[in-house]
Amino acid sequence: MTEKPRQMHLGMFLQGAGHHVAGWRYPGADSGSENLPHLIRQAVTAERARFDMVFLADGLTSSEDGHPSQIARLEPLMVLTAFAVATSRIGLAATASTTYGEPFHLARAFASLDHISGGRAAWNAVTTSYASTGANFGVQHPAHADRYAIAEECIDVVRALWDSWDDGAFPRDKSTGVFVDQSKRHVIDHKGEFFSVKGPLNTSRPPQGHPIIVQSGSSEPGQELAARTGDVVFTAHQTLEGAQVFYRGLKARLPRFGRKPADLAIMPGFLPVLGGTETEARDKLALLDGWADQSRVVGMLSDRLGHDVSQYDLDGPLPELPVSEQIQSRARLLTDAARRDNLTLRQLAQMVATGRGHFVMCGTPEQIADRMEEWFVAGAADGFNVMPPYFPGGLDDFCSGVIPILQQRGLFRTDYEGPTLRDHFGFARPPNRHRSSAMQALAASAAPSLPARLRDSHISKTESKTET
What we know:
globular, 2 domains, 11% strand, TIM Barrel
């Protein structure tokens, strides 16, 4: 059988006011992260273009100096439930915190979304970087290392809860009067360092088995977590070379967890600014940049560096700053860009205002497609998280201009091949760990004559597959 050619995966990163801090001011732009009809229209457009998923980021704080898309916004899982009704095939991804969320609630919420959408849910599992979040929950914000330790345990518990019931546990057989088969029910009885969860989950096993797990941490513990538990990684890079180094390094971690490179999709974010010519696209970006409020974007830069830089000369270089307990990987990316390109603080703040450190591509549809193909073929990406600078025009331009070129080159699908998000990515549906364990025990008891060494080898391999 001929192997299917590799194709890109595309996420549509939806920000209600556009990704550029001034995107909402662009002529014809619609906006509002609480404007549900507007948000639904963008999800429908992305599905029509055959995107793998639409993605809603989230945070648990607000700031008057924050991005217009983030100051006030709806709870993302409720928005995705509305998307599930308005669409039929596109994946639905949302951010939820492992630090400020309980595993039982997280497992139930994403299992419910997976059921409602027919197998299209994805959880962007984040540790929550900003220290100010703790004040909204009456707790001290954990240190960076502690947040990742919590995340490791939280994700494991959530996945175990998704396996609380075997497939077919609810026969609802009227002739026998059996509504639920209790032999297919599993109590996880977890007692760990951070969580104690009895189970089972009061939601049946999700259509995907496990909803897709997305991660975006690029620090050392973030990459380890992604290599062990992630299906998709959202990341940020300013150069092809930097993206290649990250891609190779993260993929190289997978074999230690019994996984293959194809088991994890790496999708850098990028902000496309399109025009009839490259000059027209750059003029459009300059117009948007000119509308950015400099007094506010310095605060956004400070957030992403983890240090207040407002007291420094904005036309001077980025000062030497200690490692932050907030967004370590993004702070490092911005610092590297400032040193590499000799950026002033003002210029660095504008980079954050434009795309928060993500790569910005200006050009014609052909030029944008060329750059995407270059990164994809050169081993820098399995796809991209597309960040339109404003809506609906920025998304419409990408869908009508770039998508057809990618399709003509055989780099992107012309139609969906299956109903679930796992189908879009080509990921197998994971077996239920409890049922697999029972089958292993049965196999071992049925073949007592096998040498212990071979028996143990067989079980070890089965457990490895189950874990993945």
